[in-house]
Each structure stands twice: as C-alpha cells, then as structure tokens.
Amino acid sequence: MAVLEPMHLQSPFCFAEKHEPGVRHRQLVAAAQKFPPIRTAVVHPCDDASIIGAFEARDERLIVPVLVGPTAKIRKAAQQAHLSLDGIDIVDTPHSHAAADKAVAMARSGEVEALMKGALHTDEVMAAVVHPDTGLRTERRVSHVFVLDVPSYPKPLLLTDAAINIYPTLDDKRDIVQNAIDLAHALGVARPKVAILSAIETVTPKITSTVEAAALCKMCDRGQITGGVLDGPLAFDNAVSKEAAAAKNIVSIVAGDADILVTPDLESGNMLAKQLVYLAGAEAAGIVLGARVPIMLTSRADGTLARTASCAVAQLFAHRNRPPA
Predict the structure, then answer these.
(1) 225 Cβ partners below 8 Å, 6+ apart?
(2) What's the N-to-C CA distance of the chain in angstroms?
(3) Model pTM?
(4) Are 201 and 222 within 8 A, CB to CB?
(5) Cα(301)–Cα(114) distance, rounded to whole angstroms?
C-alpha cells in the first residue's frame, strides 16, 4: 500500500513573522501607567485568583482596589495568598449577590470608576449591572470585547462579542460594533478597521449573518455607526490575510488588515477566541462595555499578564471617557 506524504498547507497567517508573545499587552500596561490608577470595586474577591489579580493590578499602578464582599472571607483569602490588607478599603457585604449590588451602587454614585469580577459567577455581576432600576445601563447594549495579542498578527486584535450576547439582533450588533470601535479609540487606533465575519464573503439570504453584515456596513455609511471603517461579510481568512483576500479578488482596506473582528454570535466568537489562545498562542485580555463603567470579567484560568492587561484596557477606557473637569 502506498503511503501518502504529509501535505504542507500554504497558510499566510500561520507563517507570518511572529513577535514575542505578550509584547502588545505589556505595551498596553506601559501606556496605562502614564495615567493615575482608577478606583475599582473588586466584587467578592474571596479566593486566591481574584484577590491576587487585584493586588497584581495595584502593584502595576493600574487600579486602586476596593474589596467588596464578606470581610471574613476576604481576610481568609488574603491570608492564604500571603497578602497584607493594610491600607486596602474593604466594604463588608453578607454574600456574593449583595457584593455585586453594592459594587454597582458604588459605580452609580461615582465612588469607583470600574468593576472587577472576583470569585462569583459572571451572571451574578451582570444581573446587577443590567438591572433596569438600580443597574448601570446606558442607551447602549452591553457587550464584551476581547483584546488579543496574537504572536503571528502584526497588531492588537479586538474580537467581539464572545461572552455576553448569545444571539444578538441587528440592533444589538450595531451597539456591539460601536462599543468595540470606542475601545479601539481608547487604545490609540484612530480609525479602526472592522471586519464583520461570516462563513463566506458574499451576501446570501440563506446565511443570515451575511445579510446583517451588509446591513451593518450600510449603517456605517449612513452615520449610524461612527469612528471606524466596516467591511463584511468577510470570512476569517479574508479578514486577517491579505493573500487570502487577494486570492478571492476582494478589494477592501479592511480585508487582511482588520483591527476588530465581529462574530455572528457568542458561540462562534467564544470558539474563535479560545482557538487563538490555545492553538495560536494568543494572550487574551478584555472588558465589558456599554455600561456606565468598564467591567473586567477576569477568570481563574487567566494568567498574570491577562489580568493586568484587562485592567490596563479598563484604565485607558475610563480615562478616555472621563468627563471634563
């Protein structure tokens, strides 16, 4: 029986010149350190990962942590992590739900400029954030933006929404895109290039995401989305590889040079983000936008750089959106 030789696929993305992993995130941290740290409510920091993350960000001069939760549990977590609570403000609450409500109230009153999730479920934090009467809602849809440092991509790559909106409507996607554009501005990208992703590059009613991608581009043309340049539908390869775009005769300033990737839904966005992390060596930071203050949804799986980079992103966004004195 003949043995087939392994195929060597020509992938411009995979064979791109690589930079040192994490270098873009360290640049974000350095940029944020030029501004004063922001006062941040850390919600229920009652385990090692969450309290260490808050202290790491404090040590990098990114945040001034205010620990919100049961005092006894916070002190126990700090003791187990060998951290001193001297000089740290603690706001006592009976449990995690109360901690989320109190942190949101502090943001509403202007006592803090950001929220950081601790040892509780994301749903608990977000339920308090989006409460119609006591939450932090604005006219915008709340959405999550990953800020990815992909070693084989020449610049930071924003990806949205992979954490909040499961099956967003067209109106939701308008806000999701605008939130990501606003974040890109805060990170120093003057006119971000936004790729609206789907499985193919042509518009077909059989694939709803292609129709909505085209609609989003026209909304940008009409001023319903501002501050960036949009193109879509684009398949992932066309969005990140100029060679792939050229092979399909796609003429676009976005194709092959995207700053922002907008996925059709949470499922595809979450899978894409994790594929870039686990198969392409990307570092992932990110925040929730569309509320009155930025929200850091840190995870136990996050490393030190991911946590501090998320705080840097929130800090840069908060300073950009701080009202004039």
Answers:
(1) 174, 177, 178, 181, 216, 219
(2) 78
(3) 0.91
(4) no
(5) 21
Asked if residue 153 is part of any domain, the answer here is yes
What is the number of domains present in the chain? 2
What is the torsional sign of CA 123, 120, 177, 40? positive
Helix (H) / strand (E) element for 315: namely helix 304-320
| 279 shares a domain with 212 | yes
Residue 5 forms part of a structural domain: no
My answer on whether 108 and 203 are in the same domain is no
Upper half-sphere CA count for residue 264 (Cβ side, 13 Å) = 19
Whether residue 251 sits in one domain with residue 228 = yes
- C-alpha to C-alpha distance for 22 and 150, rounded to whole angstroms: 8
CA atoms of 43 and 41, how far apart (whole Å): 6
In 103-142, the DSSP E strands lie at 114-117
Residue 54 lies in a domain: yes
Domain of 216 in residue numbering reads as 138-290
306 in a structural domain: no
Q: List the pLDDT tens digit at each of the 325 positions of the chain.
A: 443 334 333 444 444 567 888 899 999 999 999 999 999 999 999 999 899 999 999 999 999 999 999 999 999 999 999 999 999 999 999 999 999 999 999 999 999 999 999 999 999 999 999 999 999 999 999 999 999 999 999 999 999 999 999 999 999 999 999 999 999 999 999 999 999 999 999 999 999 999 999 999 999 999 999 999 999 999 999 999 999 999 999 999 999 999 999 999 999 999 999 999 999 999 999 999 999 999 998 776 677 788 899 999 999 999 987 766 5
The whole-angstrom separation of Cα 215 and Cα 7 is 39
Report the side by side order of strands in the sheet with 143-149.
Answer: 89-92, 63-69, 38-43, 114-117, 295-296, 283-289, 143-149, 157-160, 260-262, 193-197, 229-234
Q: Could you give the angle at the alpha carbon of 235 between the alpha carbons of 234 and 240, nearest 5°?
A: 90
CA gap 291, 216 in Å, rounded:
22
